[in-house]
Automatic annotation (TrEMBL):
<dbReference type="Pfam" id="PF07730">
    <property type="entry name" value="HisKA_3"/>
</dbReference>
<dbReference type="Pfam" id="PF02518">
    <property type="entry name" value="HATPase_c"/>
</dbReference>
<feature type="transmembrane region" description="Helical">
    <location>
        <begin position="73"/>
        <end position="92"/>
    </location>
</feature>
<dbReference type="InterPro" id="IPR005467">
    <property type="entry name" value="His_kinase_dom"/>
</dbReference>
<dbReference type="GO" id="GO:0000155">
    <property type="term" value="F:phosphorelay sensor kinase activity"/>
</dbReference>
<keyword id="KW-1133">Transmembrane helix</keyword>
<feature type="transmembrane region" description="Helical">
    <location>
        <begin position="207"/>
        <end position="226"/>
    </location>
</feature>
<dbReference type="InterPro" id="IPR003594">
    <property type="entry name" value="HATPase_dom"/>
</dbReference>
<dbReference type="GO" id="GO:0005886">
    <property type="term" value="C:plasma membrane"/>
</dbReference>
<keyword id="KW-0472">Membrane</keyword>
<dbReference type="InterPro" id="IPR011712">
    <property type="entry name" value="Sig_transdc_His_kin_sub3_dim/P"/>
</dbReference>
<protein>
    <submittedName>
        <fullName>Sensor histidine kinase</fullName>
    </submittedName>
</protein>
<keyword id="KW-0808">Transferase</keyword>
<keyword id="KW-0902">Two-component regulatory system</keyword>
<keyword id="KW-1003">Cell membrane</keyword>
<keyword id="KW-0812">Transmembrane</keyword>
<dbReference type="GO" id="GO:0046983">
    <property type="term" value="F:protein dimerization activity"/>
</dbReference>
């Protein structure tokens, strides 16, 4: 029995390795129940294949019956464990049906233990041999089949029907590749088991080949589960990275809002508080100067209020839905005027409904451009012109400031790069032109036709 015993030993080793591997995987957090069930199935398969070796080596009837009884019992245990693995893998777990299927194999197991010649036979008269092509003799029993053998066929048929129906349910749920993989591996196992039943019934003279079906199930499903595990690990890594980036984005947004509050509202309110505190004393000495202070105080207060409204629009997206782009830009500019003496000429022509995403990008770019003008341009006048028609929306922001060489922007100044990225996010074109001593102009153009074609594609 050298060749067959060697093959069975190799098969058993494969099943042992795969079983221990999946039990180790089950100790992790990714689908532990699934990998535990499959690892247990592999270990039972390992035991079953090892139990077949003594059956092939038996030289007398008693020795064969004992080996047959052990192998059959392990086969029943394998089917009971395997059906639970199928239920977990396909996510079709009717507990009562599963317990009923297991109870059939419990009955078969008990009959197998108490019957004189195992569940397949009432008695075995003698052993015969079949010689394989390479000259190796194979032991075969000769005797009377047990009428309770039909119970084993019933249990096997019931489990097969359940397993393939579970695969069908999984296929219908959309997990086609997983269902087909499991279905093919089960079909191979069932085919080899049916071959062995024909051997038991004396229809064909051959060796038992169910062990090859068992190994094919172990190998095919192990490869499939490993692939799914790698995909799950990759997805988990992507989710972790997405969460990390989300937290960074939230922190950056918080810092930006805090900076905007400090640069605008906080400073404006500080100025308001300073003027309000000084006005009573100034009024006593010079009412005209105090009157100018009151006017400045009103202007600063309105500016702070406009700035707060701008921030609330950013924090509450439905604020974008309620107002057209032209009104949002005017509100934004009004907030900026409250903290600077800069003259801003605003022109809005052909304002029309736009998506929240587009309006937000236009507002953010306008805000960034005006903040840069206030900080760096040394300008006294700014023009903001919004023109829209059925084809495109164009925003032009120009100033009469000192300008700069647009080809020599320091690496630390990210404002322009951020504005370009915002424009690209809505498939808009962004153009900046500036020369030293000649001011700066920014043109943002969003084409309705281009974005309509992109959405259709």
């Amino acid at each position: 029995m050298t060749i067959i015993s060697t093959l069975l030993g190799i098969f058993a080793g494969i099943c042992l390795y795969v079983g221990l591997l999946h039990l180790l995987i089950a100790s992790g957090r990714l689908k532990p129940v699934l990998h535990f069930c499959f690892g247990l199935t592999c270990l039972v398969t390992f035991s079953y294949i090892l139990a077949l070796i003594p059956k092939y080596k038996a030289i007398d009837v008693d020795e064969y019956i004992n080996a047959k009884r052990l192998a059959s019992s392990l086969g029943f245990l394998f089917t009971s464990v395997c059906v639970w693995f199928v239920a977990v893998y396909t996510q079709f777990k009717p507990v009562r049906i599963l317990l009923g299927l297991n109870s059939l194999y419990v009955i078969c197991f008990l009959i197998n233990q108490i019957s004189p010649a195992s569940i397949q036979y009432s008695y075995i008269n003698k052993l015969s041999t079949i010689t394989m092509p390479w000259g190796e003799p194979i032991t075969q029993p000769e005797g009377m089949l047990n009428y309770l053998f039909g119970l084993q066929l019933l249990a096997l048929t019931s489990n097969v029907v359940f397993a393939f129906y579970a695969c069908y349910r999984q296929y219908q749920r959309g997990e086609k590749s997983s269902a087909l993989t499991l279905g093919v591996s089960l079909a191979i196992l069932v085919g080899t088991a049916q071959h062995d039943r024909l051997v038991d019934l004396g229809q064909i003279k051959s060796i038992y080949i169910a062990e090859y079906g068992f190994v094919s199930l172990v190998v095919i499903m192990s490869l499939r589960l490993t692939k799914e595990l790698m995909q799950a690990v990759k997805l988990r890594e992507q989710l972790v990275e997405s969460e990390r980036l989300r937290k960074i984005a939230v922190e950056l947004e918080r810092n930006r809002l805090a900076r905007d509050l400090h640069d605008s509202v906080s400073q404006t309110l500080f100025t308001v508080a300073t003027i309000a505190e000084a006005l009573p004393r100034v009024w006593k000495r010079n009412p005209e100067t105090a009157q100018q202070g009151l006017e400045e105080l009103a202007q600063l207060t309105q500016g702070a209020l406009a700035e707060m409204r701008n921030l609330l629009v950013e924090l509450r997206p439905n604020g974008l839905v309620e107002k057209p782009l032209g009104e949002l830009l005017q509100q934004l500019i009004k907030g900026i005027l409250g903290r600077t003496s800069l003259e801003v000429i605003t022109t809005v022509e052909g304002d029309r409904p736009l998506s929240d995403e587009v309006k937000l990008v236009f507002c953010r770019i306008t805000q960034e451009a005006l903040n840069n003008i206030i900080k760096y341009a040394q300008a006294t006048q700014v023009s903001v012109r919004l023109h829209g028609d059925s084809q495109e929306i164009v925003l032009r922001i120009s100033d009469n400031g000192c300008g700069f060489d647009s080809n020599k922007i320091p690496s630390g100044h990210l404002g322009i790069a951020i504005m370009k990225e915002r424009a690209e996010s809505i498939a808009a074109t962004f153009h900046l032109s500036s020369y030293p001593g000649e001011g700066t102009e920014i043109v943002l153009s969003w084409s309705t036709a281009v974005n309509k074609i992109g959405s259709e594609e």
